[in-house]
Recover the amino acids of this structure.
């Protein structure tokens, strides 16, 4: 791992960039500001490397990162209707920052705007012992990362803020890059009170290169045929919609923009089918897809992820990664696969990017990046039919998402 100075915040705090590299020349750079994935260099299969994530090259832009480029988002990702919810009958109110709703926890105090400390495995173990938590897995995390020669960085935040989410929280974010070209994001969060915990990473991918513009010609397959239906404020209605055979169905692989072309023509909203209405409401794709449970094909993909499967680490039956997505560049030369142990993914086609000035002189226009935000069910606490995102006091929230590059 290489550490270098990235810049100073408006308050004069120095921010560092940590770059991980594997033996194949892939490089992933993270900031201790917001746990942000700032750049990701992949082979272009022609002897060079291209950066495939949208980002900025100065800290000032990240301090005004309203589109959450590359950020670690929490404690709750996605939207909560009316910016309120209940735990055990007690009502909690959140920042109103998305119409009358809450988006991504808090505009200025969410984890995307917090400064983390880079720590070692030993320091993580010490913090966990101070919490009276005997974390056997923490030791095994160290074993499998070091044994597999994965370059890594661990970010830690002691979150004293609540902002409508009860409890003081200890947050560990482990980023590692192994020689199988797997970028692994692991989150471990412990709260001293019963609370909502539902974080994600909000990186925007463009496998043609972050400066290449519109990403609609890239090829996508999603391992899901069901979404959480949304209203005109993009809040889940509580209904699960089967989208098989519709414009929201990516199970057979297609270019991202194939079924969005009607948005550029005149249409009568009332004449559209329900699935196309969903697309109009989001101005493209911005939907929670419910990930298919493991089948034979997915189990085979799990076996490919050798990172967690040795007896010294943990039993296979205790750790299940589901395949989420496969994305390929427009020329098919750069490909990636997404796997996670979370039940859902927010697939977002960058509909609200509006000409952001990015790194290397890039300008990020509408739909120039694609997000695969692994998550729990959005607005779950306001819909009893959804799987809850509430974690008990002292319980460890532990999740893993993998981006494998092929």
């Amino acid at each position: 791992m290489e550490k270098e100075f990235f810049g100073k915040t408006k308050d004069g705090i120095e921010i560092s960039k940590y770059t991980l590299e594997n033996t194949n020349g892939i490089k992933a750079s993270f900031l201790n500001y917001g746990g942000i994935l700032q750049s990701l260099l992949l082979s272009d299969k022609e002897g060079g490397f291209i950066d495939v994530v949208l980002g900025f090259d100065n800290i000032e832009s990240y301090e005004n990162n309203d589109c959450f480029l590359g950020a670690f988002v929490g404690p709750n990702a996605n939207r909560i209707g009316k910016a309120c919810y209940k735990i055990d009958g007690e009502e909690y109110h959140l920042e109103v920052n998305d119409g009358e709703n809450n988006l991504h926890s808090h505009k200025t105090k969410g984890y995307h705007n917090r400064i983390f400390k880079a720590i070692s495995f030993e320091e993580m173990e010490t913090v966990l012992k101070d919490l009276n938590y005997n974390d056997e897995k923490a030791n095994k995390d160290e074993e499998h990362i070091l044994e597999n020669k994965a370059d890594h960085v661990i970010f830690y935040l002691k979150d004293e803020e609540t902002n409508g989410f009860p409890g003081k929280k200890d947050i560990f974010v482990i980023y590692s890059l192994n020689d199988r070209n797997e970028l692994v994001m692991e989150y471990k969060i412990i709260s001293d009170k019963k609370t909502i915990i539902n974080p994600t990473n909000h990186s925007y991918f463009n496998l043609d290169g972050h400066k290449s513009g519109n990403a609609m010609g890239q090829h996508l397959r999603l391992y899901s045929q069901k979404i959480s239906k949304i209203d005109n404020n993009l809040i889940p209605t509580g209904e699960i919609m089967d989208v098989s055979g519709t414009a929201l169905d990516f199970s057979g692989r297609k270019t991202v923009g194939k079924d969005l072309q009607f948005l550029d023509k005149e249409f009568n909203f009332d004449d559209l089918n329900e699935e196309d209405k969903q697309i109009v409401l989001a101005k493209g794709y911005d939907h929670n897809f419910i990930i298919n449970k493991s089948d034979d094909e997915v189990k085979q993909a799990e076996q490919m992820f050798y990172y967690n499967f040795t007896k010294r680490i943990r039993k296979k039956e205790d750790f299940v990664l589901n395949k989420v997505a496969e994305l390929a560049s427009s020329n098919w030369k750069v490909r990636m696969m997404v796997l996670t142990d979370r039940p859902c993914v927010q697939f977002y086609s960058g509909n609200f990017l509006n000409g952001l000035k990015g790194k290397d002189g890039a300008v990020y226009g509408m739909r120039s990046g694609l997000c695969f935000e692994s998550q729990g069910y959005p607005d779950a606490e306001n819909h009893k039919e959804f799987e809850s995102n509430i974690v008990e006091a002292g319980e460890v929230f532990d999740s893993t998402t993998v981006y494998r590059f092929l």
